[in-house]
């Protein structure tokens, strides 16, 4: 083997030592390559990012921040973290960045830790209307330890009801107002939220986990100038390692840094921090900006194609990378649609739609996203094919992989995946 610092790519050694896990890595790659990946929160990070993730930086303890660590031997990881911080600030035009959160949920914990005491009042988007578990769901620490009121979407527009946000803010006087979620197809009016937060003296927090990649690619407006703090994941549209980060105004920097470490986390994962640095550099390139625009154009085309086939995108369409699809007109539940698509080689997830009459684990909708297929190079003509196969899988199959139509669809999917391969050899 050549003298490379990246032993993570030594697959043959792994195979010799542990054929079981090597087999899982191999079959997962085969799975990704042979189906349509339409989970809106997933993407295919680059070999450069994966290389940094598989590096020896994984070994290093580096509690603290660059130049002020609790361990010796941090000279090299200090460089990696400082580069990641500098690039993150530049990419988002932010005053301060913390690149240590282990995930989106960890970044969110830091915000609660920085600004709130248990029992404090917050205002966030309701989970069944598109929010996130960490925004006050009862099964999450956030809903157990904080008193979180929820706004939703308007019944007619299915978009955020800003009048309700203002009314609830005036009524509850929350310490923090939270915007963002996991199933919001439309742009968020950050100025409206800022004005409401200012009126009631609240911190304005944006959880940009889903759409931050579109911001990095300059394809949609940024929340950074408006928000006190913006948390995000780095593995969704952004296309970096599975992790999280936050950016904030300088006035909140010390508070948030202390909340990430030592309040909520121990040692940072320095291999992941290095991988985030690589990802931020990728995001600064012109081809990433084109990618972000293509992701949206593809999502809009896919949503339009499904609308033509009686699978209705809520809000009438999308401004982002995802569409939330109402299946009530075709009379199939979200759970059945997910299973039928899965048997046909199409990976997506069931999702509640606003005012959903079904229980959450059944749901009346599915969520689709274009980050992965766009990374594979698919464009508008392929979105028309995908709309057709989703519609056929949902309405003409029964979840049995041996169903004749399911087999036909899998052949079409295989053709797409051969022409636009994930991780081309
Ligand atoms: C994905 C997501 C998260 C959580 O990210 P993890 O990395 O899975 O912890 C938090 N908030 C929103 C809005 C998300 O979409």
Automatic annotation (TrEMBL):
List of residues that carry N6-(pyridoxal phosphate)lysine = 236
Domain Serine hydroxymethyltransferase-like, first and last residues per copy: 14-390
Alphabetized, the UniProt keywords read:
Amino-acid biosynthesis, Aminotransferase, Cytoplasm, One-carbon metabolism, Pyridoxal phosphate, Transferase
Q: Which GO biological process entries does UniProt record here? A: glycine biosynthetic process from serine; tetrahydrofolate interconversion
Tell me which residues bind (6S)-5,6,7,8-tetrahydrofolate.
Answer: 127, 131-133, 250
Q: Which residues does the annotation list for site: Plays an important role in substrate specificity?
A: 235
Q: In which pathway does it act?
A: One-carbon metabolism; tetrahydrofolate interconversion; Amino-acid biosynthesis; glycine biosynthesis; glycine from L-serine: step 1/1
Subunit info?
Answer: Homodimer.
This chain belongs to the protein called Serine hydroxymethyltransferase
Organism from which the protein derives: Arsenicicoccus cauae
| Underlying gene | glyA
